[in-house]
């Protein structure tokens, strides 16, 4: 038959499970004799057969859960072997369960993440505890530590159908309680009941339910214009109560921000730093309103807004501007004081003291500034103008603002002065001394006259003319003749030229006036006196003067005729000399004149024939023919003398006189002299020879004085002419 025993688990070693030998029908003592024993079936049975009594006893710890797990019932099938004869018995040992295992959760701590946006009633499954026991010892019940947000839903006690869930009772707020720590307790149905606990850590997952918020709704900041590019304007900060990506904030300009503002500033989307990326100009815009948006990275993203009011502070970065709104030029030089020349407008784009402008004009005369109203000035004439002194003014209008340091601007105004005919032509000198050689060619230029008229254009255009009212010269044998018959002046160039050749012997000095008249309205004029000195040329040969009709003069008498020829005069003269006349006795006197003047008229006499030591000689400058020695009969009855009269000109001109001297007795010489005197109406007695010599000597002295005077006048004229030309 089948032997079956039951033993509770965890029975102590030595506990008798059953009387195996007896139950198998063995006699007392037979169990040991026949070697009653258990045959191992491959796993430890935790029971053994006692050899003496033949009882089945617990040999080691007996754990049902280890032997059978969750199987029920837990039956161990044992084989019992006896010998003599050999027999095998099958024994079943049922290990009954006791409540020796507490419920065990998979982990002592369970982390659970629940979105804070979860709705009440949401179910979150939990993995329940396990109990190694079976039956009622394994029937579990759960409890949750007190909380108003959650409860446990435990449906069924069967392990296969049990369902444990966490039910949300009210909405979660991560910002209020980010983590809920709860304890789930599992209790089995044993007596006494055993429990197991698990800590439930519920992390509330953030939902993007909070928009970013700035510290201030309006930020005010002041920045100097002209700040460097990249200057940090302000750092703004927003906070988001959410977490994770829901709290990651990006800063950006609002869509309402104008494009030019976005070009002016840049914002760091992560740090919220607003920096300058273009130059600020107070004059273009003195303030900016920038709406900033802080946007998180949640889904959907939420945004917060603030306003940055940036005030641009003015710096003195704009120089004054001076504009000429009206310009009346040129200005007549006779314009009255107070005449408005230009209208000026001045401005400065800066503000305050930086925009207050003071104005000055340089040079301070002859113009000045008159303020008409704010920012407008008139440039007026303060002094009389003189175009001939200053024909054009470069006026500087200097503007300076009140900034620190001040900025300046300069505007140049060119003011030309128009001419009026207020200046008469004026010659360089009041009197011009002109030297002109006689026999000049007709049309030859004698001098150039120049009159200066500082006026311009027609007012300064000068025309020249010879004024008939005060000009002329004395002409030998003709009387007074106007200067215009001798000279003329070119109307444009002032060139003085000769109308005809000048003849010194006809006119020596010509004095006239030249008038210079401008083309102004009315015309003005100026005068200059011209003294024209005719410089003598050696153009006249000496001419013999007939003495008592002959041209020779003797203490006795003379005869002769003058016959002109080729600019000279040749004469045949006669004279008588007595034998025995002593040396030095004047036989005759040759008289000649030269129409020229000065050296050209200074004559000298030379004995041309006979050459050598003749009986006669001629005074070099007196022209007296006298005996060189006492006359002798050997000298012959007649002596022929050829006398050359020569001037000192360059080249020298000359004439020749032939004197025939007859040698006679003293009585004949007296008769010849008497006859000669009666025929020629001029008779010189021998007793008058001394008086004649004295008269000739006096004449020579005066001739030398005249020559020296004319020479001095000529030298003075040359000096004056050279000085005037220089």
Automatic annotation (TrEMBL):
It is found in: Cell membrane. It comes from the Eukaryota. This is PCDA2 protein. The keyword Coiled coil does not apply. It is a single-pass type I membrane protein. Keywords: Calcium, Cell adhesion, Cell membrane, Glycoprotein, Membrane, Repeat, Signal, Transmembrane, Transmembrane helix. Potential calcium-dependent cell-adhesion protein. May be involved in the establishment and maintenance of specific neuronal connections in the brain. GO terms for cellular component: plasma membrane. The chain crosses the membrane at residues 701-723. GO terms for biological process: homophilic cell adhesion via plasma membrane adhesion molecules. The keyword Transmembrane applies. GO terms for molecular function: calcium ion binding. Residues 6-105, 106-214, 215-322, 323-427, 428-544, 581-688 form the Cadherin domain. The gene is Pcdha2.
